Amino acid sequence: MGCNGIHKKVKTMDFKEMNPLGIIGIIGAIILVVGVFLGWLGPTSGSGTTYTGWDIWNNVDSIFKPHTEDYGGLGYIKYSGVPGYFAPLVALICGIISIVLMIIPTVLGKDKLGNIGGILGIIALILAVVVVICAILMYTGTVTVETYTAGGELISKVTSKVASDGVGFKIGFWLVLVGGIITMIGGLMPILKDKGIIKI
């Protein structure tokens, strides 16, 4: 057989047995993971702090998660937190799991997996849907800040969009949203192909 025969066999495994639909899902999942560590919220112009998705989850600024700040005898302030603030964590988990789920059928090929390939596609699809929903919650949501006296009397209540007053969504947020959609497509297409709805 020799080295040439071994080379041809490896080449066949690399290219002919790989599932191109799974590759779409892998690309989307990688974008998900990368997007978590890029900027999500920051100033639309000028200088200022830009927070990555991981910063938001780690709550590096107390505005992100629901909490109450007590000022003793002076009163306290309630922060509703950013809706979907857990989106970066969900995106990271979904991205990593989706990469694993997509690599298995893509490398081994559908014929060797049987029905397992379709099951893995469904799992990846569900995870991607969760990511997209979380991102939409953050994009459309509002933040409420309530100020109270020490006796519990409401002094003021301010509600605003997450992206407002010079703050906007950055590239990391959009990458996660796009990555989630691509991963959804990567998980959905094999299912549609199996049912004969599409032919690729």
What is the CA-based Rg, rounded?
23 Å
Mean pLDDT: 80
Tell me the strand percentage band.
15-25%
Find the count of extended strands (DSSP E, 2+ residues). Answer: 7
Q: Quote the distance from N terminus to C terminus.
A: 35 Å
Unreliable spans: 6-17
Helix-strand topology string: HHEEHEEHHHEEEH
> Given the structure, what is the number of helices?
7
Main sheet specs: 4 strands, antiparallel
The neighbouring-strand order within the major sheet is 3-4-5-6
Structural class estimated from helices and strands:
alpha+beta
The coarse silhouette is elongated
Helix content: 55-70%
Describe the protein's architecture and organization.
The structure is a single chain. The chain is of the alpha+beta class and 200 residues long. The protein has a domain at 15-65 and 87-140 and 166-194. The protein has seven helices and seven strands, in the order ααββαββαααβββα. It has a four-stranded antiparallel β-sheet. A three-stranded antiparallel β-sheet has the order 2-1-7. Helix 2 (20-36) packs antiparallel against helix 7 (171-194), helix 4 packs parallel to helix 7 (171-194) and helix 6 packs antiparallel against helix 7. The longest helix has 25 residues, at 116-140.
